[in-house]
Amino acid sequence: MTTNADLQAGATGTHVPQREVELPAAVLIAWSLAGGLLLGGVAVVGLLATDRLSAHAFLMMSVLLYAIGAALGLLHGLVLGIFGRPDGTTPRVAAGQMAHGLIYLVPALLLGWLTAGWVATLPIALHSHKVFATAVSVLAWLLTFGVLAFAAGAGLDAAKLAYRRWPDRVPGTLLVGATFVALAVTVAIRRPTIWFTDVRLTGIGAAVFVIAATFWFYGPIITTGLALLRKVRPLLPVARFGPARGWRDLLGRAGLAGAAGVVVALLAVPFSEGVLGIPTDASRLGVTRAVVLAVADAVADELALRLFLFTVAFVLVMRFVPPRREWAVGVAVVVATLADMLVHWPMVPALGLPGVAVTVSYVVARMAIPAVLFGYLFWRRGLGTAIAAHASAGAVLGLLAI
Q1: Is it the case that residue 338 has pLDDT exceeding 80?
Q2: What is the Cα–Cα distance from 238 to 135, expressed in whole angstroms?
Q3: Worst-scoring range by mean pLDDT, 11-20, 76-85, 143-152, 180-189?
Q4: Which of the two residues, 219 and 397, has the higher pLDDT score?
Q5: Which residues lie closer than 8 Å to 275 by C-beta, 6 or more apart?
Q6: Strand partners, 200
Q7: What is the DSSP annotation of 30-89?
Q8: CB under 8 Å to 168, separation ≥6 — which residues?
């Protein structure tokens, strides 16, 4: 609830301390407490129930996980409290309200720590037929459910305010949704491995990876990329990042993307169909799955490499280097290209390429040239054309394998 004192504070830039806990502080406290209870209590019970944790080590694990969960909840509550502040409340006032809420956070976390311990004790209490311990554990579970329900309600209120305040909510929501679908399709077709290792994720691990990558990685970078584009839009023709203007423009973009895809696919032919015989996704997975995977990879890669990295590099160069747009574009293309090569480098050693010259040729033809081309298309024609060109390259390569 926003008071008159808060509105006056927002206008003057000062904060008048209040006794009541405002929404930003409530979110901060509730999410930190809920995170600790989930990891330090509920997660420990899950580990005990599946025999992945011994009864002798549960207390130490409960304390450790509680601290981690409380820290993660505190971080999420801090972000949500700032962006989901009530209307009329400035970020500075919201930060002051959360600082005021720290007074209540310390005793709440201590009480939550005790509650998490009793939550984690429930399997042991049931197994040993301890009536008093079981009763206390049940009460701790009820308290945990209450905290989780309150945290969910406060977080939902703050999320609604943050979403309503988000100026790019329509394109941002579409892009985040497309990312979620793309990542889900990718892990369904090709189970991911941990970067620079041979550790392959399980089904549950892959699902957690999709959710975490969508909302903790792609969500923030999509938001940042769209916000930066709005700031530099006076330096760019609006049509480069806007929708197609009529059928002629749409067909022109589609034709350009298709032509770029054919060029990129043809660069791969000497390596897949030549003497090296490097297997393609189409030969390993089938044409249909390979094409679907290519589209999903195109969405995920272009959002991270072009929408975010390209735009950030462009903005930084324009900010700190004498204002020459050509330099900014060149640096942005190079930064996105190097990042593209770094992301896809772990797959190169597994190909068993014979010699340094062949490896360099492969990296240039299959990574560097396509990345430069996609960066140029993003600059000249926008994100949709870059994604379409990237996707068509994989589709054409799959069709060539028929």
Answers
A1: yes
A2: 64
A3: 11-20
A4: 219
A5: none
A6: 193
A7: HHHHHHHHIIIIIHHHHHHHTTSS-TTTHHHHHHHHHHHHHHHHHHHHHHHHHHTPPTT-
A8: 223, 226, 227, 230
DSSP output for 148-202: HHHHHHHHHHHHHHHHHH-TTHHHHHHHHHHHHHHHHHHHHHS--B-TTS-PBP-
Task: Give the per-residue pLDDT at 275.
Answer: 54
Alpha-carbon 380 to chain mean position: 26
Q: How far apart are CA 298 and CA 360, in angstroms?
A: 23
Closest CA to 126 of 64, 61, 48, 63: 48
| Maximum separation of any 2 CA atoms in the chain, in Å | 76
Per-residue pLDDT reduced to its tens digit, 221-273 = 999 999 998 888 766 554 455 555 667 777 877 888 888 888 888 888 777 65
Q: Is the pLDDT of residue 112 over 50?
A: yes
Question: What's residue 64's pLDDT?
Answer: 92
CB–CB of 295/391 below 8 Å? yes
Joined together, the tokens standing for residue 400 give 């060539």
Distance of CA 94 to the CA centre of its chain: 25
* pLDDT tens profile 6-49: 444 444 444 444 557 789 999 999 999 999 999 999 998 888 88
- The rounded distance, in Å, linking the Cα atoms of 68 and 77 is 14
Whole-angstrom distance, CA of residue 397 vs CA of residue 359? 20
Q: Distance (Å, rounded) from C-alpha 161 to C-alpha 171? A: 18
Q: How far is it, in rounded angstroms, from Cα 272 to Cα 133?
A: 65
At how many degrees (to 10) do helices 131-165 and 23-37 cross? 140
- Count H helices and E strands in the chain, helices first: 17, 0
Q: Give 392's contacts (C-beta < 8 A, 6+ positions apart).
A: 257, 258, 260, 261, 262
Global pTM reads: 0.82
Cβ atoms 43, 64 nearer than 8 A: no
In this prediction, residues 171-175 reach a mean pLDDT of 93
Whether 225 contacts 307, CB under 8 Å: yes
Q: How far apart are CA 80 and CA 71, in angstroms?
A: 14
SS3 content of the chain, % helix, strand, coil (to 5): 80, 0, 20
Structural contact between residues 401 and 280, judged by C-beta atoms closer than 8 angstroms: yes
Mean pLDDT of 75-104: 92
As given in the structure block, the two tokens for residue 375 are: 């960066």
